[in-house]
Amino acid sequence: MSDLPLIQADRAVAPPAATTSTGGRRRRLRLLSRTDRVVITLMVLVPLLLVTGFVWLPAAATVLLSGTNWDGIGPLNEIEFVGARNYSDVVNIYPPFVPAVQHNLLWLAALFVVATPFGMFLAVLLDKELRGSRFYQTALYLPVVLSLALIGFVWQLLYSRDQGLINAVFGSSIDWYGDSNVNIWAVMVASGWRHVGYIMLLYLAGLKGVDPSLREAAAVDGASESRAFFRVVFPVMRPINIIVLVVTVIESLRAFDLVWVVNKGRNGLELISALVTQNVVGEASRIGFGSALATIMLVVSLVFITIYLATVMRENRE
């Protein structure tokens, strides 16, 4: 009996020494075969080349061309650099620019104040696992799958002055797409119809990830359902809220397909994205001027994207 502790001591194995993350990474790389390394390299390299070729290089070329007066016809070595003159012309002597900025801000306000809260409200309802919730999720998300151009054609059946459903039901003769006083509101309704389904899906995914014990604790403390949502659940979904904010801003900036289908972004539907297309591929073919407009959109988008990335990286460090 006296030898038992000695035997157990001899059999005891010392805990393995902690390996550094670098050493563990090198060991895993040594375990990979040559084929695995080639596959991993291609999986990283091919998307990187595609993003660089189709996103970053065109974006850099747009910024460079925004300082020229190139019309897209002459050779590249004859391009004349004009500095910030295009930006000055956009702000000072280009009449559609101010209405376009106003319409983009109005578009952002409509999506942020109306469509986004409504999408969140639908997500809260569907999170309760109501009867037929799968059907409602599919029906509400269906517009997101459709392109904005197709949505424009669908709503044209509703907004048509002579044969549209809305005028037929209410006995009116409003030219929803032709009247410059109402067409921006009509188009925003069509855009919001699509945006609601997107926001609903994002918040529904966020609600599924909330710890149920938080709601139970709030209920035990006597908080009402709405109070528990805004005081407990909503702050927990901070990453989703930031994603929704970024998505909403980008959607308001890149709103193009819908207004282009209606009237090519004219007569009350001026948007910055439509002005870019009119100057780059339109009859004027002012590549430098259109690039200046596109660069303005890029800078505004990067502000919110940077905020989102900074928030995500901060949370990962924590």
UniProtKB/TrEMBL annotation:
One of its GO terms (cellular component) is plasma membrane. It is a multi-pass membrane protein. It is found in: Cell membrane. This is Putative ABC transporter permease protein. The keyword Lyase does not apply. Pfam families: BPD_transp_1. The chain crosses the membrane at residues 38-57, 105-126, 138-158, 184-207, 228-250, 287-310. It comes from the Bacteria. GO terms for biological process: transmembrane transport. Its main location: membrane. InterPro entries: ABC_transporter_permease, MetI-like, MetI-like_sf. SUPFAM superfamilies: MetI-like (SSF161098). Belongs to the binding-protein-dependent transport system permease family.
